Amino acid sequence: MIRELTEEKVFKDPVHHSVYVQDPIVWKLIDTPEFQRLRRIRQLGTSYLTFHGAEHSRFSHSLGVYEITRKIISQFERNGYADWPKEERLVSLCAALLHDVGHAPFSHSLEQVFGTDHEKWTCEILLADTGINRVLREADQGLPERIASVICKNYEQPIVVSLVSSQMDADRMDYLLRDSYFTGVHYGTFDLDRILRVLRPYKGRIVVKESGMHAVEAYLMSRYQMYWQVYFHPVTRSSEIVLRSIFKRARKLHESGYRFEFLLPPVRRLFDGILTVGDYLELDEAMVQTSFGQWTREKDPILSDLCKRFLNRQLYKYIPMEHLDETWLSQMRREWQNIGLDPDYYLELDTPTDLPYDVYKSEMKQGSPEKPPILLLDDKERLTEISVKSEIIRSIAGLQQGKYHIYYPEDMVVPHANRLSPDLREYLYL
Ligand code: NI
What we know:
By secondary structure, the chain is of the alpha+beta class.
């Protein structure tokens, strides 16, 4: 049986002021090595190269998601809503706390190059022989599996899944406020207290009381603003492209039998695609950046150059491409080769839709794993999808357009400008 802590524990937090821990199991989970590792992984990957304040970790975000979930459940319990299954409280809190435990260092870039999947790793960490697994099993043998199925979104109680993973869940609410706070971009704020008051459990899902519509509008506007101002910032994209080029080059070298002066075992096994849970948990941003520092002295000039660029923030320049023009891209690649630049690492087309974020989707496509839309509940117990009633939300729902950009190291191209075709010189303003 879970006993209460003799007194509740409190973490100071810049976003929520305080994070309250009342259950011994939550306290013990925070104390595990796997959860402590999240202190060494930044929430926003390479964004600190654009917004110098964006050094916050997945540890602080995870505590924040837990705290928002705790507040929502506490509101449901205080109001005695019959549609909230009370026995799910602990599963919900643990899932909220642990939802990001499987993130890798520079998660998004690493997933793109190596095809890893943080949700899959989260479940592996829950189910393998780890500190987290032991703490959960001690409380209840079936708990690791139940929490894993919340993370994989196939839990028997969909309302628990929607708390942690929906279009207005504790995860999104925390990262918007936290990312806004730490980047210093003030568009990202909205009235969290108001939203927490208007949420209702209703027939297996969480809905919003109709009078709360404007608070949800502000939340979705904040998503919209943060999307363009922070998550899709072209300088951040540039740093991600340099980072991906490093991973691609290092893996290519490794596959071709190149002997690294410095290659730590977990990184080698990442390249070989044979990571164990233990290896994965050893990977953190300190290890990746130490590797980059050492690789600046490798014999391979491309790897060494890319690592210096990343560490010293000599990023790629970007220019817009009005529409996707494959012929033009192939010509650029040929001209790059003519001046001795490998286009696989020094020329990148950035596709605007390639982001782990979306603003809001009002429809559920058949057979797709899309998250269900936000529903308003009126006083006659009728449900309406929110964009039907809100003009603001109607106008931003489904927005995904953005520009294509070409990224390249300007300093390596300029010295060879006279050998480029007049067309390309004009395009690059050379
Ligand atoms: Ni998260």
